Amino acid sequence: GQQVMQIPQYQHVQEGEDFTTYCNSSTTLSNIQWYKQRPGGHPVFLIQLVKSGEVKKQKRLTFQFGEAKKNSSLHITATQTTDVGTYFCANYDNDMRFGAGTRLTVKP
Amino acid sequence: DAGVIQSPRHEVTEMGQEVTLRCKPISGHDYLFWYRQTMMRGLELLIYFNNNVPIDDSGMPEDRFSAKMPNASFSTLKIQPSEPRDSAVYFCASSSGGGSKVFFGQGTRLTVV
């Protein structure tokens, strides 16, 4: 898979605020996968995007894949303390290489 | 299914000792990955197998690291000799087909003193 870049590295929000993390590539991606890792846990699959311009929602989470398939975003509306963790994007094309991740902390 | 199973969960060893990490992938999965996670370097892909065959080991840091997959239900990652800088969490993961959902094990936290 292609190497992807993620920003920001860290994000601290007040509970109830929104949160967005971005994933970028210099080349066209066949897909983007998003994972969440809770503190002390292991990465857990959230979603996969494959189509240009694709948007998928999971409750308060919205995932987008750019029209050029070179970038993606994960947006969380009204964060909760249960959203705490590190969010990773990855391109899976035989092998799978993760971005550096965005660590989200939420202040109650 | 019990998911991807790794053992041991924690390992503390002295520098110079051999360390063997074990992984049982989900039954029926044909891809197996080994990752190393540290604060400084994030999640690094060490090696991956397809149908028990190593496909890309370019992420293996040194000759001290080796990985095998003797059959579809078992893989090992060996470090010999171990060094303090090898301290990290090592994850094994598996998937059914390239490009599908990847399932991670709980990880092995290795500490080399």
Keywords:
heterodimer, A: six-stranded mixed β-sheet, 11 strands, 0% helix, B: 113 residues, mainly beta, seven-stranded mixed β-sheet, four-stranded antiparallel β-sheet, 56% strand
Structural class of chain A: mainly beta
Number of strands of chain A: 11
Radius of gyration of chain B, taken over Cα atoms and rounded to an integer in Å: 13 Å
H/E element order of chain B: EEEEEEEEEEE
Average pLDDT reading of chain B = 95
Mean pLDDT of chain A: 95
**Can you tell me the residue ranges of chain B where pLDDT is under 50 for at least 5 consecutive residues?**
none
Task: Name the shape of chain B in a single word.
Answer: globular
The share of residues in helices of chain B is under 10%
Terminal CA distance of chain B: 36 Å
Task: Please tally the helical runs of chain A, counting DSSP H or I stretches of 4 or more residues.
Answer: 0
Strand content of chain A: over 45%
Query: Which segments of chain A are poorly predicted (pLDDT under 50) over 5 or more consecutive residues?
Result: none
Descriptive notes:
The complex is a heterodimer of chains A (108) and B (113). In chain A, the strands form two sheets. In chain A, strands 2, 4, 5, 9, 10 and 11 form a six-stranded mixed β-sheet that branches. A five-stranded antiparallel β-sheet of chain A has the order 1-3-8-7-6, with no helix packed on it. The N and C termini of chain A lie far apart (37 Å). With 108 residues, chain A is an all-beta fold. Chain A contains no helices and eleven strands. In chain B, strands 2, 4, 5, 6, 9, 10 and 11 form a seven-stranded mixed β-sheet that branches. Chain B has a four-stranded antiparallel β-sheet with strand order 1-3-8-7, with no helix packed on it. The termini of chain B are far apart. Chain B is mainly β and 113 residues long. In chain B, strand 9 and strand 10 form a beta hairpin. Chain B is globular and about 35 Å long. The A-B interface holds A 30-31, 33, 41-45, 48, 88, 92-101 and B 33, 35, 42-43, 45, 48, 50, 55-56, 91, 93, 95, 98-107.
